[in-house]
Amino acid sequence: xxxxxxxxxxxxxxxxxxxxxxxxxxxxxxxxxxxxxxxxxxxxxxxxxxxxxxxxxxxxxxxxxxxxxxxxxxxxxxxxxxxxxxxxxxxxxxxxxxxxxxxxxxxxxxxxxxxxxxxxxxxxxxxxxxxxxxxxxxxxxxxxxxxxxxxxxxxxxxxxxxxxxxxxxxxxxxxxxxxxxxxxxxxxxxxxxxxxxxxxxxxxxxxxxxxxxxxxxxxxxxxxxxxxxxxxxxxxxxxxxxxxxxxxxxxxxxxxxxxxxxxxxxxxxxxxxxxx
Length: 276
Hints:
single chain; mainly alpha; Arc Repressor Mutant, subunit A; three-stranded antiparallel sheet; two-stranded antiparallel sheet; 14 helices; HTH_Mga_DNA-bd_dom; transcription; transcription regulation; WH-like_DNA-bd_sf
């Protein structure tokens, strides 16, 4: 599991159980709890309890060759269990709901997550530190992310892109994939670009942009940046038609809003384009 996903898991026990599984998976031989104890700086008693809890979740994951010799051979099962553990984190649920435009206050979140308000505040303070890396702030009543729209979009893209390998629940759906297929074909047919696009990244960008526009959260691009865009490869005209005809992204009658969204799409395409 990547570092960003681990940061989104403030619960020390869940964090440790994920690292325990990863230690067993990475070992090229059956590994002992003593070795894992030394690596994770955790007592044997605690690790034995962790192994039992993981067994209770999925008894076929960890193969025990003796009282302390452990092995994992089913990588698909590993992915399933890691996803189950990660999604226990309140921050995953809170981030996903904020993305969907669902904003709850502290008491409502505490009830929904079955945790105390003091525990929730501790998790949210941890979340604030993560958001600072993206130049964002956390509002508490209701719980929401504040900051520049470009930074909010970048955070959501980074969040979903980073969690891609641990959870199917945060991936673009078939509708988004079809939009990507049509979009890529349109750009190749209506521009002079030749090359490849980082398709996984673009899939998540389409998911983020369409949702933010659905919530009427629009991007703002400075005049200076708009002028610089004209110096870049000519994709803007294709992007404009793409947005209207394929993606259906223009949700505002405001010409400035529409122009900014077109420019943002253009920058995203160029940023994810691999030239040949």
